[in-house]
Specification:
Strand order of the largest sheet: 2-4-5-7-6
Order of helices and strands: EHEEHEEHEE
Largest sheet: 5 strands, mixed
Helix content: 25-40%
Distance between the termini: 18 Å
Number of strands: 7
Number of helices: 3
Structural class: alpha+beta
Shape: globular
Strand content: 25-35%
Length: 137
């Protein structure tokens, strides 16, 4: 494992995420906190998990739809929320795709993270929750 600033890890992939979404005609909003938080996971593995999570959700979206990526510390973990426009949480979520869901879940869990899903205000939300570095909040 490696201790790394999670905002820096996310900023490094923002251009790729925005370019991919734009190419597909999907509007992607990204909201990162201003404060620095340290995560105790592989930066590359973390980036792959976030990229894959966003890609799996936008794969099932229609041109013109919007997806939002929000990052925050909550419940003692660093959480990346991917919020899609569909209230049915079973639609196009990474953990629901049988062919790829196992691999995706394995990547996240290998990093000590969890994939959570929940409907929020008529939308679907996938939350990637990762441990903070010890003693860092």
């Amino acid at each position: 494992m490696c201790i790394r600033d999670r905002n820096k890890a996310l900023k490094e992939i923002c251009d790729v995420l925005l370019q991919d979404a734009g190419y597909r005609g999907i509007h992607l909003g990204i909201k990162l906190p201003n404060t620095s938080q340290m995560i105790d996971i592989s930066p590359l593995g973390f980036q792959v998990a976030v990229l894959y999570g966003v890609e799996q959700i936008i794969d099932g979206m229609k041109q013109g739809d919007r997806v939002d990526l929000e990052a925050e510390v909550r419940e003692g973990r660093f959480q990346v929320s991917i919020i899609g426009p569909y209230p049915d949480c079973s639609l196009h979520l990474p953990m629901e795709k049988p062919a790829t869901g196992g691999l995706y879940r394995e990547i996240v869990e290998e990093l000590g993270g969890q994939i959570l899903k929940q409907p929020v205000q008529g939308k679907s939300t996938v939350i990637l929750a990762f441990p903070l570095a010890c003693g860092k909040k």
